[in-house]
Structure formats: structure tokens, C-alpha cells
Specification:
Rossmann fold, Sig_transdc_resp-reg_receiver, globular, about 15% strand, Arc Repressor Mutant, subunit A, five-stranded parallel β-sheet, 2 domains, 11 helices, 5 strands
Amino acid sequence: MIRTLIVDDDALVRLGLCDVLADEPDITVVAQAADGLGAVDQAMSHNIDVVLMDLRMPRMDGIAATARLRAMPNPAQVIALTTFDIDEYVYRAIEAGAAGFLLKDTDPAEIVRAVRVVAGGQPMLHPAAARRLIDHYRRTSRPLSTAARARIDRLTPRETDVLGHLAEGATNAEIAAALGMRESTVKAHISRILTALDAANRVQAALIARDAGLRP
């Protein structure tokens, strides 16, 4: 059973998300919160697998709450919720450790799918969305990061190849096809990459790759 926490300062949004998940046999909403402080309190009181997290809230916003949640032992996966398309709040939420994002008007079936995907340890970003995130960082004027380059140097050549394709938003299946390996092997490489880079998820790994100037 995937135990979820819904966090939004709008009671109607919380109710709508509860309704979306209510009939799923493998998902249960165990708690709700109206702001980031409430989210942290609920996460400390319940064993949460996935958090649907609004970003703009009073007292503590979703970015700060995401960072707090991800710092906990056995942290829940966080899906950032926004009424806007990819914006600065979403970039900051992903840097704080969110596994991805959803627009609040996302189709209900896609919300359910995202909860399952994230609970399984995969990011819920569609590859096109991941590419847009990377494109955003490529357009910034920040110099290449020496620290990011040092992290990349921890990887084997094959892991670096995998990371390069991951940074372009490729799925595991696409990486496997491009590099001539099994998908299970790609998953194993990505697990080692996240550990070596000290990255919370593959989106953070992709941003580290961008900062290091890595290209597939």
C-alpha cells in the first residue's frame, strides 16, 4: 500500500486530490496538511511514502518543507504541485529533493500513475519535461562548477555515458537501447551514480551533470 500525504493550503484542492486517489486499491491517503509546517508534523507522525506538495503556501512553503522532509530518515518521495508550468519554484523544489512535479490540472489518471512511479523509486518527470529543466539551466550564465566536475570524476566511463543520456531526459529503456545494455543494467548503473554523486534522485543527478558541462 502506498501511503500518501496531501499538502495544499486550499481545502478544495486537498479534497479533489483525495477523491482522485480514493478508489485506488494500492494507494491510501493517510494525512493532509495546509502548509509546510503541517506537512513536516504529519510526516513525523505517519509512515509516508509519497507527498503531493503544493509550493506556494503560508508559514512554510513547499520548497522548505521538501528540504525538511528529504532530510528525515527514510524520507518520503515528494511530487511538487503547481498551478503554473515549469517556473523558478519548481526548479528550486527539485533542487531541494523533489522527485518531480505535476500541474494541478493534470489528468487524474496521470496523477495516480505519478504516485505509483515515484513510490517505485523513479522520477515522475516526463522526458520532455526533464529536457526543459536541463535547457533552463543551460541558458543560465553560471560558470561550470568545479565541485560538480569533481563529483563526475568519481564515476566509471560507462557510468558517465549513462549519466550523459540521463541528463538529456532519456528513460531507462532509451539509455539501454542507446548504449546496448539491458534495462536492469541501466538501473544498476543509475543506483551507483546517485550514490557516487550524492544525489537524491536522477533529476538532481542531471543538474549536477549540467553544472559539470557533461554531454552524452
